[in-house]
Amino acid sequence: MRTVALLLSLAVAGCAVGPEYVRPDAPTSAVYKEAPKDGGATWLPAAPADALDRGDWWRLFEDPELDRLAREVDAANQTIAGAVASYRQAEALVREARASYFPGLSLSASARRSGGGNGSAGRVASTGGSAGAAAFDISVNGDWAPDFWGRIGRGVESARAGEQARAADLAAARLSAQGALAVDYFALREADFEADLLERTIAGYERSLQITQNRYAAGVVAKTDVLQAETQLATTRASLTTVRADRARFEHAIAVLTGKAPGEVTIAPAPWNAIVPALPLGVPSDLLQRRPDIAAAERQVAAANAQIGIERAGYFPSLTLGASIGNASSRIGDLFQVSNAVWSLGVSVAQTIFDAGATAARVAGAEAARDVAVARYRQTVLAAFQNVEDQLANAHAQAEQAALLKQASDAADLTEQQIMNRYRAGQVGYTEVVTAQASALSARRALVQVAVDRQVSAIALIQALGGGWDTAAPPQVKSSLPAENPR
Fold first, then answer.
1. Whole-number pLDDT of residue 113
2. 468: Cβ contacts below 8 Å, ≥ 6 apart
3. For the chain, what percent of residues have pLDDT higher than 70?
4. How far apart, in whole angstroms, are the C-alpha atoms of residue 175 and residue 360?
5. Could you write out the DSSP letters of every residue in 48-75?
6. Using CB atoms within 10 A of its CB, is residue 68 exposed (0-12), middle (13-18) or buried (19+)?
7. Which has more confidence, 57 or 127?
8. Phi-psi region of 371 (alpha: psi -120 to 50; beta: other; left: phi over 0)
């Protein structure tokens, strides 16, 4: 018993071989290069805090329909469902690895009958041969391999890191699906807005065509003016058809994201809420640390580090304890009598003496795999920093573009109105009207596009930061789009 107790204590306090895990360092920057100059945000060493709540970041856009669709994505998106299943699988692998800490028990039972001839065919025929002998036995067998060198512990460590990586992958899948939904949703609303713009523009072109036809009937202008007006009207109607087709595709994409067939989803046209969440002057560093891809990459390093210990345990002997207890008898009725009980205890030790360097090769391979995971982790961090910087630069440029395009649209609208008045007065030809109207429409559509681009960039920045911004009442920047576009 003292020997068993000693073995148990050694197994519990066994020496785990292999390097202890230390989170690898990664290149960092002191400040956001593209942050507004009146306030920067500091980058700290990345330490993924992936378990933190990201919140319903899409609520920053103040759109109830988007809120509803985001809930459906979380509940029914098939990519998310697959990531959930992968996480459950990783949980099962952790439980499987932990089971190796405990002894294994098995129950076995057998019944045998044996016999043989009496030496010659004649004697067998005359005596009927041997009657044979019966044997019955039943036993409970147990075996246990104490984790002296930490092989099992490292396996559990690796499995747990894999589980945490799958949890990060789940968070990444959810964030990606939510971001794709928001992008498609705002593209759909932009299509609604642009379709309304084109419909109102077409109405204006129809009036222009009527004016031109009247002037042609009066002999004031040539037939070419009517043809130009008809061409412009038909071209704009064709653009409206393209916008409506684009809207249908966005609606189909939203249906798939919410786990439904396109035929099951119809999103009614509605006003476009062009709010863009303002960028904080100082983005908290821990938000960047919450990026799920960084968390997953870091956990892969931990799993690879544990694998080194698993392979190094191959240098040391393995010990297995075995025990069995049962009964054996020649008659089944006597099988469970105490006098027929049998038991056994045993211990076996195995040590590889020569394997031509196979263990060393496996250790070297595990160390190389760990180095690969470290490099991937650092590259993931660098890519995350680049992603944030790119989106900050986009947001800054698009804010300036929106202001400039608003000025251009206002000027183009005024030019269109003045040119049309001069045409009615017979001071200019219809070619100038067509040019002014095309320029005005182009400026309006560019203004609409930059407005949706600003929302898409805000979504991309939120994703780059690993989720929403942790602010109770985030400031808002209203879109530069006018309530109604002049015709």
1. 81
2. 54, 55, 56, 57, 60, 462
3. 81
4. 42
5. --TTS----GGGGG--HHHHHHHHHHHH
6. exposed
7. 57
8. alpha
Which segments of 425-469 does DSSP mark as H helices, in order? 430-464
DSSP 280: P
Buried b / exposed e over 335-370, threshold 16 CB at 10 Å, is beeeebeeeeeeeeeeeeeeeeeebeebbeebbebb
Read off the pLDDT of residues 469-478 as tens digits, 9 standing for 90 and up.
Answer: 443 433 444 4
In sequence order, the 6+-apart residues with CB closer than 8 A to the CB of 54 are 171, 175, 290, 466, 467, 468
- The helix (H) or strand (E) run that includes residue 344 is strand 341-350
Q: Are 161 and 306 spatial neighbours (Cβ–Cβ below 8 Å)? A: yes
Where does the pLDDT of residue 244 fall: very low under 50, low under 70, confident under 90, or very high at 90 and above? very high
**Do 299 and 168 contact (CB within 8 A), yes or no?**
yes
Q: How far is CA 151 from the centre of its chain?
A: 32
Structural domains of the chain, with CATH = 24-100+149-309+379-477 (1.20.1600.10)
Interatomic CA distance for residues 226 and 210, integer angstroms:
9
Q: How far is CA 21 from CA 28, 97, 158, 314, in A?
A: 21, 19, 11, 19
**Residues, the chain, total?**
487
Report d(CA 213, CA 222) in Å as an integer. Answer: 10
Q: What Å distances lie between residue 361 and 40, 351, 367, CA to CA?
A: 49, 17, 10
- State yes or no: pLDDT of 479 exceeds 50: no
Q: Is the pLDDT assigned to residue 155 strictly greater than 60? A: yes
Residue type, 155: G
Partnered with residue 350 across adjacent β-strands are 318
Residues β-bridged to residue 141: 106, 324
Higher pLDDT, 325 or 29: 325
Cβ–Cβ < 8 Å for 465, 290: yes
Amino acid at 97: A
pLDDT of 45 reads: 41
Please check the confidence at residue 297 and state whether its pLDDT lies above 80.
yes
Lowest mean pLDDT of 42-46, 113-117, 270-274, name the range. Answer: 42-46
Residues 208, 438: contact at Cβ < 8 Å?
no
Q: Tell me the C-alpha distance between 302 and 168, whole Å.
A: 14
Phi first, then psi, for residue 425 (nearest 5°) are -85, 0
Q: What is the Cα–Cα distance from 196 to 198, expressed in whole angstroms?
A: 5
Instruction: Give the tokens for residue 163.
Output: 């589980």
> DSSP letters of 142-193?
EEE---TTSHHHHHHHHHHHHHHHHHHHHHHHHHHHHHHHHHHHHHHHHHHH
Residue 46 token pair: 């990345």
Q: 40: helix, coil or strand?
A: coil
pLDDT above 60: residue 118: no
In Å, how far are 132, 306, 456 from 18, measured between CA atoms? 58, 7, 47
137: pLDDT strictly greater than 70: yes
